[in-house]
Design a protein that fits this description.
Chains A, B: Belongs to the guanylate kinase family. Two copies of one chain form a homodimer. The radius of gyration of chain A is 18 Å and the shape is globular. With 203 residues, chain A is an alpha/beta fold. Chain A has eight helices and nine strands.
Chain lengths: 203, 203
């Protein structure tokens, strides 16, 4: 069989580009793709399940894991730590599962320094007008926050060239199909199949 | 719209791996993919149409085209020239058509020196036993020719790492699906979309 190791898919993109929706739909559609579960020090909200929505851990444990290299990346929001536990990701990859990390640009670049063989995907809105429209229509953000998101997006765009692929999200179903094509194509990359090629040659 | 330029898909692989069948099926299935038509100096056979099966040209014209850089690659078989006309390929790529060149390893490496942005795909049989079986079951080759093909295959395998992808042909329909995924994914590659990214940023 071809490449048996799972792919690490790192998905970034501006707020409002729809990366969450695309990743959620991908995981529903494909039984070989799994979302990475983040660890956090914040308290669980009503209905949140440990090991499903997040791994809820203490601040002491979180900082200890950072210290010992157990977090692939982490960030602090509103005084709480959020991060990606390395062990869980490594176990899934070794088991042949494709793992999706939905993280912002700085975290993605941190992960890339450890996993250059990962697949780095930047979700793009069709235009900045459309991004503004999507952010405004959510109705949850003040005009100031919308402007702040747009200026963050402009900064994030300056990092696109560090990603392997752009994923245009003009339509969720189309974007998911493109993402599936990226997964299937990446499994065929020569450098991921050196062992398999050797097996064929020696058969 | 994303990357508007067509992709140059260069497909190689040992005799008996099934690259011809896979490419033919791909072109039937996808309206955006076209087979490149070779030029040759051999006489047309009954039913062969100029500009469809081959471009039939004189030896004088063929060698003149080689001299002026009009052939992407060429080879001589049984005293006749065969080659890929550069102009036809460039016109199709510029018109946004994906072009398939089904050529052997040496020709592919020659093309790669001119088109590093091409997508280089090596078709693999599931095993060498299966390759031997397919070559034998054709019934058109003598045992000596089968052995010769297998030893050529062993040489071709030493060049696989110069290809971007391997395409396992365990089943024609599955192989065609993987090839379609490669095409769709390559159109999403960041370096093919720099102009599109700039358009989105400035919109």
């Amino acid at each position: 069989m071809q490449n048996k190791r799972g792919l690490l898919l790192v998905v970034s993109g501006p707020s409002g580009a729809g990366k969450g929706t695309v990743c959620k739909r991908l995981v529903e559609k494909r039984s070989d793709v799994f979302l990475s579960i983040s660890a956090t020090t914040r308290a669980p909200r009503a209905g949140e399940v440990d090991g499903k929505h997040y791994y809820f851990i203490s601040e002491e444990e979180f900082t200890e894991r950072i210290r010992t290299g157990g977090m692939l990346e982490h960030a602090v929001f509103c005084g709480n730590y959020y991060g990606t536990p390395k062990r869980a990701v490594d176990d899934m990859l070794a088991a042949g599962k494709n793992v999706v990390l939905e993280i912002e640009v700085q975290g993605a670049m941190k992960v890339r320094s450890h996993y250059p063989e990962g697949v780095y995907i930047f979700v793009l809105p069709p235009s900045m007008q459309e991004l503004r429209k999507r952010l405004t229509e959510r109705g949850t953000e003040t005009p100031e926050v919308v402007e702040e998101r747009l200026s963050t997006a402009a900064w994030e765009f300056t990092h696109i060239q560090k990603y392997n692929y752009i994923l245009l999200n003009d339509d969720v179903e189309k974007a998911v199909c493109r993402l599936e094509a990226i997964i299937d194509a990446e499994h065929c990359r020569t450098e991921r199949n050196l062992k398999f090629i050797e097996e064929v040659c020696q058969s």
